[in-house]
Amino acid sequence: MRDIKEFQILDINAVHFGIDLFDLMLEAGNRLGDYILKEHNNTDLFIFVCGKGNNAGDGFVAASKLHKRGENVIVIRAEKNLKNLSSEALKLYEGIFEELDFLDNVKDKSVLVIDCLFGSGIKGKPRDPYDILISKINKFKNILSVDVPSGFMTGTSVLPSQTVTFHDTKIGMNENNCGKIVKIDIGIKPQIDEKCGPGELLLFPKLVSGRHKGENGKVAIVGGGEFAGAPSFAGLASYRVGVDLVHLFVPSVSYPQVSSFAPELLVHEINSNVITSDIIPQLKSYNFDCVVVGPGMGKSKHSLNAVQEIINNFNNVVIDADAIGSYDLNGNNILFTPHAGELKRLGLKPNRESLISYANSNNVTILLKGEIDMISNGLFYKENFTGHPRMAVGGTGDMLAGMCGGLIARGLLPFEAARLSTYVIGLAGEKCFRDNGPGFLPSDLGLSISQILGEI
Fold first, then answer.
1. Residue 220's beta-bridge partner residues?
2. 168: helix, strand or coil
3. What is the pairing mode between strands 373-376 and 381-384?
4. Which of 136, 210, 241, 338 sits a CA distance of 20 to 30 A from 66?
5. Is the pLDDT at 214 greater than 90, yes or no?
6. Do the beta carbons of residue 61 and residue 87 sit within 8 Å?
7. Which residues on neighbouring strands pair with residue 230, listed in sequence order?
8. Global model pTM greater than 0.70
9. Residue 208 pLDDT
10. β-pair type (365-368, 266-270)
């Protein structure tokens, strides 16, 4: 079961990776037609009520199939102006059309109404004439909704006796609002489903007016000690994804360098040479939306104990670099961001099965950084292929951790944040190479990240 937005992401990625959406529409419509013919072979009349988008296109293809088989088929169109794909699908249907008021005169006996008004892309409540059509459809006993009931989750929706949904079920679907749910495979291969692509950009939470400082997220970066630059890079990357406030907590030995790195960073000195558990009360006082721990931290026993205390006391934690290791995990939105060497500390192999198993068993998300980034939350798995070889330069991983923390602070789930971050920072690396050549620095990535997100 997936969020509806994931299917919009999948459509965009499918096109990007060479899939013809009209071919998918044909597959969906034909599979729908097969199901109707099999399960409703004693029905006397099939009424397809169609909107203007892809959901309507699926209906036109299925209606065409039933008509060619000699079934009694009626198509009712809510609108004459169709979107491109559904317009092509309509050309396949050579049967009878009726006006909207046809539904008022049909006797509800051996009739199946197929609801193809809206798919999963609806925004807001259905308006005229759709709200009226939904009311008319709901007077029938046998209703089959295509993909999701029209008006799904809006308060004004079709209440079907069954729903045929494609590829996977959608979050919120149940027998009360969908009737019997039937999932149909339309041939989208894992090689497409499990790739990050431009669809991931839909995950970015756009800035809205009327908010006050801090309402777009507050992030804590806990690190430094051995490497002063690492927490600074992470902090700047958090800013570049739209966070309002980024606080850095670093030991005394790193404070002079980190505090002079960038004026936007709010730097706090820890009166110790390493990160310790004494930091917890100070972190709690700021009510952070996410804590990123590990960049440049070192592997002191005191620091690793502090990581466990952060896990115990905070939701939304990104564990990076030196902080990566085995802990008692509570599953409160934890994201691990290891590279291949750090992955060994978790006892894992760099493959799909190992990552999925670990994430599932521990209720965490894991992002394995590399030439191909590998991401899993235990339920789903994605790979990212964007990037440039120059991104092996030190500091890039710190920026990725900061991006993830920033996006989690802005409301994304760890799995969403990891996908969007890897895809965008990879694009930023490609852009930096084009703009700056092979010697670009991690600090160059920040502006490119912001520019890419600004073009969404």
1. 247, 291
2. coil
3. antiparallel
4. 136
5. no
6. no
7. none
8. yes
9. 85
10. unpaired
Place of tokens 């097969």: 34
Q: Which helix (H) or strand (E) holds 234?
A: helix 229-240
DSSP output for 419-438: HHHHHHHHHHHHHHHHHH-T
CATH topology of domain 201-454: UDP-N-acetylmuramoyl-L-alanine:D-glutamate ligase (3.40.1190)
Residue 246: DSSP 8-state: E
Tell me, what amino acid is at 324?
I
What is the Cβ-side half-sphere exposure of residue 209, based on CA atoms within 13 angstroms? 0
In three-state secondary structure terms, 407 is: helix
User: What is the CATH number that goes with domain 4-193?
Assistant: 3.40.50.10260
CA pair distance 51, 86, nearest whole angstrom: 9
Residues 84-109 have pLDDT tens digits of 899 999 999 999 999 999 999 998 78
Radius of gyration from C-alpha coordinates of the chain: 26
Helix or strand holding residue 313 (H, E) = helix 301-313
Residue 185 CB burial class (10 angstroms; 0-12, 13-18, ≥19):
exposed
Hunting for tokens 């099965």 — which residue is that?
353
With 0-12 / 13-18 / 19 or more C-beta atoms within 10 angstroms meaning exposed / middle / buried, residue 48 is buried
**Residue 106 and residue 366: Cα distance in Å, rounded?**
55
pLDDT tens for residues 196-209? 999 999 999 988 88
Q: Which pairing describes strands 218-222 and 245-251: parallel, antiparallel, or unpaired? A: parallel
Domain range list for the chain: 4-193, 201-454
pLDDT category at 332 given cuts 50, 70, 90 is: confident
Same fold, 4-193 and 201-454: no
CA distance 31 to 53: 18
How far is it between the farthest Cα atoms of the chain? 83
78 pLDDT above the threshold of 80: yes
Q: How far is CA 195 from CA 139, 191, 405, 419, in A?
A: 43, 7, 22, 9
Which strands sit side by side in the sheet containing 111-116, from one edge to the other? 96-98, 73-77, 45-50, 111-116, 143-146, 162-166, 180-184
If you average pLDDT over residues 236-246, what whole number do you get?
97
pLDDT at 227: 83
Secondary structure letter of residue 273 according to DSSP: S
Q: How far is CA 276 from CA 94, 107, 281, 301, 431, in A?
A: 74, 75, 11, 9, 39
Residue 229 pLDDT grade (very low, low, confident, very high; cuts 50, 70, 90): very high
Burial of 272 by CB count in 10 Å (0-12 exposed, 13-18 middle, 19+ buried)? Answer: middle
Alpha helices in 4-95 (DSSP H): 4-16, 21-39, 54-68, 84-90
Average pLDDT (345-369) is 97
